[in-house]
Specification:
Length: 595
């Protein structure tokens, strides 16, 4: 993006953010204008004081009222500044909260592929650090900039009115100061972006490691991980230092040149007073305005650095907000659940967007009847879970179609369609909160009876009874306080509670003991009536209970039929089944030995 485009996008983003709060922003602007006008009036007051005999001690009454006016001026200035500060800072907070909410809502509707390429830590850093920068920009830098621009501009006009010759000298000075400032500011901006990126990298590293802390500790990787983090944060530090060096240089140039010039102007002014070309009051007024202008430019150069950082942050946030990996959502009303759904995969080709060359499904065809329970088996990586990803529309097919009751899945209203699906992931997903919160995640308005029934169906009643606070027991982040099997039962209860027309179970019973598995099996058995159920399973017991079994290998269906048919075929299924039998026999043997 070119520099002008960047400023334009920053401007239009800021504009759209400020728009809903324009009354507030206008009030802030009013207070700012009033404050600046008061500041600019101050030197005139001083000139008047000096020239009307303040120095000579004449006219003591006039002196009293002049100081009285000055006091009023100071009071108005103080009030305007306080009001401006309140309005502007609050506006900054409001807008940064709006922006955070907007970015977060936008993130939540991104396709899963977005999160495959961008690390969660990085996203979080954008959500917090970058929005904070915008807050600083609106809540202080922008007002600082406006205030200083006004006093600088007003000061310049007043300088010209006071003494055109001396003003010429001051303007020359401004030009001399501006050139190095602009060059340095550009460098600061580049380094700012780099520094924010580096910070995001560090937080992405920390996020991943802290999420997997037990594995890190089990493999003694604490030192390696700490070293990785250190390397990353050292890079952040070095970039930040380079930025600070440049900003310091910026300050030196701006302040040094400005004040040196001021001294020169003062010298010229002193000579003018001595020769009677100027009154003492006029010189005082001139010097005050020149100080305004000098300090104004110095302040502007400083705030320019802030702008650059905020522009970097805004650029990244705009990038996020403009991302369009969202799924086209609106569409035809999804068909009503009438004893489940008729689902057809027709000539489906599919490759994950992150590996577009590798087709996970190729010319895949499958019809699933209304109310059918279909088991999907096959070796790891065969493409079983991918079928679920397509049915839940995390991804769309590359070729062919997925039809629901004869309608293309892509044409259906996504929210309505997903409301018809209940899904249990391969790895049970548990949120922090209570057991109850976790179960009713699928149906927030569920009654206590419905929750109890779902828990009972998922064979979870027993373990919940043993919990200190029953259903209100807090499970910890990601459910760390539950065992693997307990987590799985909670996520099954969640799916059962949804009472959806399509139930998708991805190895839902894998971490259950034999008894719980049997109980859940019975629950699935009970709940399969009136809905279409797809079960990905490795265990034979689960598979045998299905109406039909589909055997997949390398993205294709290689066999299909009942357990009996498939065993008779002596193909892949029979092979997988025999391995499973051996496995189960071995387990029984072990159990006998243990007893
Ligand atoms: N997000 C992804 N991006 C790229 N490739 C993926 C992604 N998810 C899965 N794959 C690949 O797609 C293929 C099928 O994966 P899938 O998860 O459907 O297999 P599966 O049959 O469910 O395996 P398992 O029994 O191990 O769960 C695998 O080769 C896998 O590496």
């Amino acid at each position: 993006m070119s520099q002008t485009n960047k400023i334009q996008t920053l401007g239009s983003t800021l504009g759209s953010l400020v728009k809903p709060h324009r009354t507030w922003a206008l009030a802030a602007l009013g207070a700012l204008l009033l404050g600046s006008a008061m500041s600019l009036t101050m030197p005139v007051m001083f000139r008047w004081l000096i020239d009307s005999g303040f120095l000579a001690g004449e006219n003591p009454e006039g002196l009293n009222s002049a100081f009285g006016y000055l006091l009023v001026l100071v009071f108005v200035l103080a009030m305007a500044s306080a009001v401006r500060f309140y309005l502007v800072t609050t506006l900054g907070e409001r807008i940064s909260a709006d922006l955070r909410n907007r970015v977060y809502s936008h993130l939540l509707v991104q396709r899963p592929e977005f999160f495959e390429t961008l690390k969660v830590g990085e996203v979080l850093s954008r959500l917090t650090a970058d929005t904070t920068l915008i807050q600083t920009l609106i809540g202080s830098s922008l007002s600082f900039f406006l205030r200083n621009s006004l006093t600088t501009l007003g000061g310049l006009v007043m300088l010209l009115l006071t003494s055109p010759l001396l003003s010429g000298a001051v303007l020359l000075l401004v030009l001399v100061v501006m050139v190095p400032v602009v060059i340095l500011a550009r460098r600061v901006r580049k380094l700012s972006r780099a520094s924010q990126d580096k910070l995001a990298d560090s937080s992405a590293i920390a996020q991943e490691v802290l999420n997997q802390i037990t594995t890190v500790q089990a493999f003694n990787q604490e030192h390696t991980e700490a070293a990785k983090f250190t390397t990353s944060s050292e890079q952040t530090y070095r970039t930040a230092r380079r930025r600070t060096i440049n900003r310091s240089a910026l300050l030196f140039v701006a302040i040094g040149l400005a004040f040196a010039g001021l001294v020169a102007v003062l010298w010229m002014g002193a000579k003018a007073v001595a020769s009677g070309e100027m009154s003492a009051g006029e010189l005082a007024q001139f010097v005050m305005y020149a100080a305004f202008v000098g300090a104004g430019f110095a302040a502007l150069s400083e705030v320019l650095g802030e702008f650059q950082r905020a522009a970097g942050a805004a650029e990244r946030l705009i990038e996020l907000l403009n991302l369009d990996t969202t799924i086209h959502k609106q569409g035809l009303p999804a068909p009503a659940k009438q004893g489940g759904f008729l689902i057809e995969f027709k000539h489906v080709d599919f490759a994950y967007p992150s590996a577009p060359e590798k087709f996970v499904l190729e010319n895949f065809n499958l019809s699933i009847q209304r109310g059918e329970t279909l088991a999907v088996v096959g070796p790891s990586g065969a493409g079983k879970s991918t079928l679920f990803s397509l049915l839940l529309r995390w991804y769309d097919v590359n070729q062919g179609q997925v039809l629901i009751e004869g309608q293309a899945l892509e044409s259906l209203d996504l929210e309505q369609w997903r409301a018809n699906c209940a899904y249990v992931a391969q790895e049970a997903v548990i949120f922090s909160g209570s057991l109850k919160d976790n179960v009713r995640y699928s149906k927030p308005d569920a009654t206590a009876e419905e929750i109890d029934k779902a828990m009972a169906d998922a064979a979870a009643t027993q373990f919940v009874r043993r919990m200190p606070d029953g259903l209100d027991t807090s499970v910890g982040e990601k459910g760390v306080r539950l065992s693997g099997g307990e987590r799985q039962r909670v996520s099954i209860a969640r799916a059962v509670l949804r009472d959806a027309g399509l139930l998708l179970l991805d190895e839902a019973t894998a971490s259950l003991d034999a008894e719980s598995e049997q109980l859940v099996q019975q629950a699935i058995e009970k709940s399969r009536h009136g809905r279409t159920t797809l079960i990905i399973a490795h265990r034979l017991a689960t598979v045998m209970a299905a109406d039909r079994i589909v055997v997949m290998n390398e993205g294709k269906i290689v066999e299909m039929g009942t357990h009996k048919d498939l065993m008779a075929k002596q193909g892949l299924y029979a092979k997988l089944a025999s391995l499973q039998f051996i496995d189960e026999n071995a387990q029984k043997l072990m159990a006998n030995v243990a007893n």
